[in-house]
Structures are given as structure tokens and as C-alpha cells.
Amino acid sequence: MKRSLFILVAAGLVAATVGSTVAARALTGPVGKPQQFVFYGHVKSLVPKGSHYELRFDPAFWLTGTAAEHVCGCGPGVPNDYVILDETHRLLTFLVRPDAAVTIVTRRDYATPITVAELAQIVAGRNPRHRRLFEPKAGFWIRVGEKYPSPVVSLGQQYQP
After folding, report:
1. What is the pLDDT of residue 35?
2. Which DSSP helix (H) or strand (E) runs through 11?
3. Residue 65 to residue 133: CA distance in whole angstroms
4. What is the number of other CB atoms lying within 10 angstroms of the CB of residue 10?
5. pLDDT recorded at residue 28
6. What's phi and psi for 62, nearest 5 deg?
7. How many CB atoms are located within 10 Å of the residue 58 CB?
8. What pLDDT does residue 102 have?
9. Which of 9, 63, 73, 123 has its CA 20 to 30 A from that of 152?
10. Rg value, the chain, Cα
């Protein structure tokens, strides 16, 4: 299997992947259920609703290693070291804080921080700041708070080779 290294910090999740081994910062409290949840998927819509935004999100699995090999039926080794499994396309709805951290992948700065308001315009097909988007259709990692109303606190676009 081709060995690769990437670091994902855009969504607030620090993860390093070498081959099929993943190390990630724990998002749980000292005991019990997680304080935050991290999901990968595609942003289908992001619209203002009162004091927050409403996100319609198509979750998917970002798989590496053995799980990816079994899904794609290839092996050993997976092209680009990952496979995205998105079977249902069932949209989930999340609230997004207007001050949530957002990072997109652009051709100029690679990881570019923007506002939730700007991301909403990009998702709607507008690009108000004329950013040179590297991969407009690439998925996002979202970090969701555990406490009601469980708002999204960050969105980070994933580079996809």
C-alpha cells in the first residue's frame, strides 16, 4: 500500500494518517459520551435561519486501510489511500453557529478560513470573493457540539487528490 501522510486541522480534529494507521485527538470527556461529534460528508445547503444557519448535510464514511479495501473490492492497496462510502444520501439537519470556524481548500492558500455567511453563498452557487476553489464538490468534516441544540462549531473542507 502506498504510504501517505496528511494532517487534518481544518475541522478542529487533529489527525495524522500514515498508511492505514490513524491517530486522532480524543473528542471525549474524561468518562462517558463524547463532548463533540465529528462527521464527514457533503454540504447540500446552508441557509440563514434567525440567529443561526441551517445545514443540510449528506454524511458519508471516509475509509482507509482494510475497511476501504473491502468496500472497493480492491487490495492490497486503495487508490489515493481512501474510499468514500455514501450509500443512503439521507440528509441530516444541523444548526450552525454564525461564528463557527470554516476552512475551504483554495488554489492560492490551500487552507483558507472564511465565514459561515460566505460558505452559505458558495454552497448556493455564488462566489462573492471570487476565490479560486480547488475542489468545489469536496466534502467537509464537521464538528458538532454535544449539548442541545448541538450546533456545528466548525466545518473544514477535505482535500481530495
Report:
1. 78
2. none
3. 29
4. 24
5. 55
6. -100, 110
7. 15
8. 97
9. 63
10. 16
Instruction: Give CB contacts under 8 A, 24+ apart, made by 113-121.
Output: 116/46, 116/53, 116/155, 117/48, 119/43, 119/46, 119/155, 120/46, 120/47, 120/48, 120/53
Enumerate residue ranges in the chain where pLDDT < 50. Answer: 1-26
CA angle 73, 77, 78 (to 5 degrees): 65
Cell 470573493 locates to: 129
pLDDT at 31: 67
pLDDT per residue over 7-38, tens digit each?
333 333 333 333 333 333 445 556 677 778 99
CB 126 within 8 A of CB 106: no
Edge-to-edge strand order for the sheet containing 21-24? 5-8, 15-18, 21-24
Using CA atoms, how far apart are residues 58 and 87, in angstroms rounded to an integer?
Answer: 10
Judge whether 143 and 38 are in contact, CB under 8 Å.
Answer: yes
What pLDDT is recorded for position 11?
35
Q: Tally the residues of the chain.
A: 161
Provide the 8-state DSSP code for 102.
Answer: E
Per-domain residue ranges of the chain? 5-157
CA–CA dist 114, 99 (Å, integer) = 10
pLDDT at 108: 82
> Per the structure block, which three cell numbers stand in for 33?
459520551
Q: What cell does 121 get?
A: 453563498
